[in-house]
Specification:
- The chain is elongated, with a radius of gyration of 25 Å.
- The chain has about 250 residues and is of the alpha+beta class.
- About 40% of the residues lie in helices and about 20% in strands.
């Protein structure tokens, strides 16, 4: 039984193939995207193995509403591929399997393609989960001249009071914190840290970059405002104005 027969059996005969060019066939199978379009899957014979691929069409489809345009987004994309055992070559997603593995491999490949193409549908969730990575990228790209140090505990006996980033300046160091949207526990620990450092008269200026200040409760907004020297209400605001503000604090 060849691999086309195995696919036909697995899909209860609801499958067919169309030759696109010598050695490459397109699979017509009941695997669909969220909008009802069929998933593009191509099959190639390769030295007793079958290459299952999408010929770059999945990333093209994703690009209509979501760009993998930062290192953080690329890390999520690569993590989906690695966890799914799928490779990428110049935009072409693929995996190679033995002929007898073709049916479960096609099902699995379709699931990974769905995760990739749906990155645009859960854009907010992706961006929320990536906030700290995106903030780190911005700091090391835009504030490298301040020699940022990560995860610093200024008080030896209070290791729980950690500064996300310490920026060296000619005068007073700047303690920079990130707070993800609706993350009350991180916000309150940031406020406690700032107040404890102030109580011990540690010389520093504090800066907080929020993901979305408006998502915080009024109580949390008041707590952090009373503790921090400077705040940015969003990552985009920090990206646009953070360098200038920190230059002024460092002067």
């Amino acid at each position: 039984m060849n691999y086309v027969d195995l696919l036909s059996e697995g899909f209860n005969k609801h499958v067919s193939v169309r030759e696109k060019r010598p050695g490459v066939t397109k699979l017509i199978a009941p695997l669909f995207h969220e909008d009802g379009d069929m998933v593009d899957i191509f099959l190639e014979d390769r030295d007793n193995r079958i290459r299952v691929s999408d010929k770059g069409l999945s990333l093209m489809r994703l690009s209509y509403n979501f760009d993998i345009d930062t290192e953080s987004k690329d890390r999520v994309f690569r993590r989906i591929l690695n966890e799914g055992g799928v490779n990428e070559d110049n935009g072409d997603l693929f995996m190679e399997v033995l002929p007898e593995q073709i049916y479960p491999a096609v099902l699995h490949f379709g699931q990974i393609v769905a995760k990739i193409t749906n990155m645009g549908l859960y854009r907010r969730e992706v961006i929320t989960n990536l906030f700290y990575e995106m903030l780190r990228d911005k700091i090391f790209a835009n504030l490298a001249s301040f020699s940022p140090k990560e995860n610093v505990a200024p008080i030896e006996v209070r290791e729980e009071l950690v500064v996300d980033y310490v920026l060296d300046t000619p005068k007073t160091p700047i303690y920079l914190f990130g707070v993800r949207e609706r993350e009350s526990s991180k916000l309150r620990l940031t406020a406690v840290s700032c107040l404890e450092f102030q109580k011990l008269k540690i010389p520093f200026r504090s800066v907080v970059s929020h993901q979305d200040f408006s998502s915080l409760t009024k109580t949390d907004q008041r707590i952090i405002t009373n503790a921090a020297d400077k705040q940015f209400t969003s990552l985009s605001e920090f990206t646009a104005a953070g360098r200038d503000a920190i230059d002024r604090l460092a002067a």
